[in-house]
Structures are given as C-alpha cells and as structure tokens.
Design a protein that fits this description.
The protein is 36% helix and 15% strand. The protein is an alpha/beta fold. The C terminus is likely disordered.
Length: 508
C-alpha cells in the first residue's frame, strides 16, 4: 500500500537504513515493499534480497526529483522496467546541472505516478495520480473525483519517528548549506512521512475505497524475476565467447609460459599447474585470468611498467601468464590462499601502474570490453566531520565547533545546542553523504550494467560502490608514482621489481 519509500540512500534526505526499512515493513505485516529512493537505485538490489529473505515481495523504482521537489515516481512492472528506469535516470546523472522534466519519456514497462498537486490529464494507461492524506479534502471538490480509476494512495515513507524527521531536517540544512532556522519548508519533507499501521492508513482513505483498490492492483501487477539477485558473479562469462575455448586458451598460454619462466621443468611444477587449472575451471574463473592477461599484454606492448600483487601472487598460472612476477614454487606459496573450492568470495588481482600510464590502460579496457564500469563509492558521515557540519547548521561559533570535534570539552558545561550537535552527530555517523570514485576499481560485466546494478554516477559510466565481492569480481588498477621513476631510471631499486625488468622477462 506504500508506493514511495526512501532509505538513507536518498542522500541527505532519507534517514532509514535499508535493513530497518525491511524490518519496519515486516513488523507491519505488509507483503510488498516498494523501494523508490530519490534519484537513485543504489539500495534496490540489497533491499530486494532482504525482502525476499523475509518473504516480502520487492518492487523497484525511483522517486524522480529536482532537488527536493517531486516530479514523478517510476515503478518497474518487471525487469525490463528496472532497466528502463536505470537508463532514464542515468541520462540525467551523466549531465551536469541537469533539469528533471515534469513528465518522463515513454517508459512502457513502468508505472508513472504524479503528485496530486501536479496532476495531468489525459493520462496514459500506465500513468496515475498519487493522492496524499493532505489532498483528500481538496479531492472532494476536484474534477479528479470523477476519475477515481486513475488515483492511488501516496503515503511517502522517509523516516521512522520524530527523531528521524529531526535528523532529516538537519541533513536538508547541511545539503542547502544553511542554518537550520533558515531552512525553507519547501526543502523539507512532511513530518507525517512515516510508515503507519495498515489499518490506520486504510482508515484515512475509508471515504475513497477505490484508491485503496487501485493501489493494491498496481502492486499486485508488478512482477520482478529475481534470478539476477543471486550471488553468482555477473562478470563477463567468457573471453572467446566459448567457455571450452577459454579453457583451451588458458592451458595453451600457461604451458607456453613454462618455457618462458623455467629453465628446468619438474614434476612438481606440472602437478601444481594441473591442480590450479582444474580449480580455476571448476570455480569458473577462467575468463577472469584471460581478461587480466589481455590487459597486461596490452601494457607490455606499450612498454608500461606494472606490478601484480596480492593473493594472486600465490598462483603459478598467474605467474606463467605474466600477471605476477612471483614464483610460487620457489617461495613455496599456497594457491589455496588465492582460490580454493570452499572459498565463497571471488579472487582479485591488484595491478599497479605508473600514474602516467593508468589512464591509457583504463581507456583500453573501456574500448576493448563493452560492459565496463568504474566503481563509485559512498563517502559516509564520520563523527568529527558530522560535528563540524551540524555545528554550522546550529550556528555555533568556530571555537566551540573545534572543541566539540576534538573532544576538548567538559560534558557538564555544554549547553543544549552543543549537546544536540553531539547526539545527532553520533546518530548520522555511517549515513551515506556523497558519491566518490574508487581509486582503481573496474567492473567488466556480461550484460549492460544498468540491467544488473544500481546507480550510475555522473560524468562517466560508473557503477555504484556498494558492489558486493560475491556479486561482481573487481579488476583493480592502482597508480603508483615510483613506477614512473622506474621508466626513466632503469638502474633504480624500483626498476628491479617491475614487470619489464625481472629475470627472463622481455619487453614484448
């Protein structure tokens, strides 16, 4: 019955953690949960997973807004609808100073819900008007009373309780860089934007049972096929478009690497190689090795220095493919630390490049692999930064803010405002604050990322930083300044540890 629910991923607006929203819905005995964060699909996948575990039907969508002003809500009828929402949202987030339209383009697999104050007529088959409790008195005298079949209940949920609403106002003041006392009402939500027990909500709309029936019918018609929510990695399945050919290529490259890496090849090396190849095949990591090999083959063709490190150094296959330069046989390193049959999370290589070369490497990856995305990360509110932000919102002098943020104060001598700053700074600690860029993470997926994952970051093809390691395997490319000195100073200490300079390593 609730068509518009926000988590704290409605940045600097919502105040409910995703797990708390699921728990609220469960405690109210609701069978459906709609997640529609403001201009974001970040929480959709995780909320859907948690909802399914609690036998709640997830419905995914977005609350499209210009700042705090609601334009419309889009709900996905099915998986195609979720893709359409992500693509449409991305078209704005990829543009600086975007302006959200009052009406969306055609989204055939979505329901569109407009706020009652911005009602349009005539409406398309998939378009409705959302009526809040505060709109009911006006509805009695509106032309819409003759078109009840196009009206639905619109009770927004942005916070749990009064403290949540107070926190919301503080976040809105931070977002607007203004004092709390000067925050415009237009920048706030309604204090009643909370989850009410279903009988209470139905009682409020008792005079209009058609709205309740329309809302329930809309919820029932949304059907999400949830196989994409499983924990199987969504990375590119194969390098050659054939899993069998992938494995043959990996075998060929590994055995060719034996002659390159070793002067004498004994039984121990062959056994280790066959063991690793079998495990890599069984765990379905063949394409992951081949993609890394292809990227580094390009790097060597460009004479770029790089260092492969991390648990990947335990693999003889990685050593033979020249992904790393550490001989696990000589150093007696255990492959099981990198990959084993009982390890659930995926492996990853850390590849270090010079800061001058990394951008070209990344551009090559984007050009070579179609479904590629950089990873965005959420920077969260930390306690000291929260104290400073809230201190400004409450109008405290800088000297007082400095004392509070460093802990140089006597709790018994704090006034009420200072105490509020400390209380709410603790409360919002861990809330997502703004998006940033992962310093070196890249995803290479089998399908277009908008079909799989959340929120695309402005300016480039970014995937949200809430990537679970069991959801997509990462490719990490870190910029290291000392590798640049290795390029020009081949006798320096750093040059002896770079991929183009170790024993038996050539430059091509």
């Amino acid at each position: 019955m609730y068509l518009n629910n926000h988590t704290y991923y409605s940045l600097r607006y919502g105040t409910i953690a995703p797990k708390d929203l699921v728990l609220l819905v469960k405690n109210c005995s609701l069978k459906q949960l709609v997640i529609t964060d403001i201009n974001s699909t970040t929480a959709c996948v995780n909320v859907a997973k948690m909802a399914l575990k609690n036998e709640i039907k997830p419905i995914l969508g977005v609350d499209f807004r210009q700042g705090a002003v609601q334009k419309f809500i889009a709900l996905a009828k099915n998986n195609n609808g979720f893709v359409q929402i992500n693509e449409y949202l991305s078209s704005f987030l990829h543009t600086e100073n975007y302006k959200m339209p009052d009406k969306p383009k055609e989204l055939p697999d979505c329901y569109i819900i407009y706020p009652y104050t911005k009602a349009y007529y005539p409406l398309k088959v998939n378009e409705f008007i959302g009526v809040k409790v505060s709109d009911l008195n006006h509805l009695k005298f509106s032309e819409w009373r003759f078109h009840l079949d196009k009206l639905v209940v619109l009770q927004t949920v942005s916070f749990q309780d009064k403290k949540g609403f107070n926190t919301h106002r503080l976040l809105r003041a931070i977002d607007n860089n203004t004092l709390l006392s000067k925050l415009p009402k237009t920048e706030e939500g309604n204090p009643s934007d909370m989850l009410l027990p279903l009988p209470v909500l139905e009682g409020m709309y008792a005079a209009y049972p058609e709205l309740l029936a329309n809302t329930q019918k809309l919820l029932d018609s949304c059907q999400l096929e949830t196989s994409f929510l499983d924990n199987r990695p969504k990375n590119q399945d194969s390098y050659t478009n054939s899993v069998d050919l992938d494995f043959k290529l990996l075998q060929k490259l590994a055995y060719e690497g034996l002659q390159y890496r070793y002067e004498k090849i004994g039984e121990r090396i062959f056994k280790r190689l066959e063991k690793e190849l079998n495990i890599i095949r069984e765990k379905q990591f063949v394409s992951y090795f081949l993609i890394n090999w292809k990227i580094l083959k390009y790097a060597r063709s460009k004479q770029y220095y790089y260092v492969g490190r991390g648990s990947g150094a335990n693999s003889i296959v990685a050593y033979l493919l020249r992904i790393t330069d550490v001989d696990p046989i000589e150093l007696d390193l255990y492959f099981e630390r990198f990959i084993n049959l009982y390890r659930s999370n995926a492996p990853d290589f850390d590849l270090d490049f010079s800061w001058r070369d990394r951008d070209d490497i990344m551009q090559y990856i984007f050009n070579r692999f179609p479904n590629t995305s950089l990873i965005a990360v959420y920077n969260t509110f930390k306690y000291r930064a929260s104290v400073r932000e809230l201190g400004k919102v409450f109008g405290l002098p800088k000297s007082d803010i400095d004392k509070l943020s460093t802990g140089a104060y006597n709790p018994e001598q704090l006034d009420q405002l200072a105490q509020l700053v400390l209380v709410y700074s603790e409360y919002i600690q861990g809330f997502p604050n703004y998006l940033g860029i992962h310093p070196g993470g890249i995803l290479i997926a089998e399908k277009a990322l908008v079909a799989l994952q959340r929120n695309l970051y402005a300016a480039q093809r970014f995937c949200n930083g809430d990537v679970r390691y069991d959801y997509c395997r990462r490719y990490r490319f870190v910029q290291i300044r000392h590798l640049e000195s290795a390029r020009f100073g081949k006798n320096s200490r750093s040059s002896r540890h770079c991929s183009l300079q170790p024993p038996r390593i050539t430059s091509h």
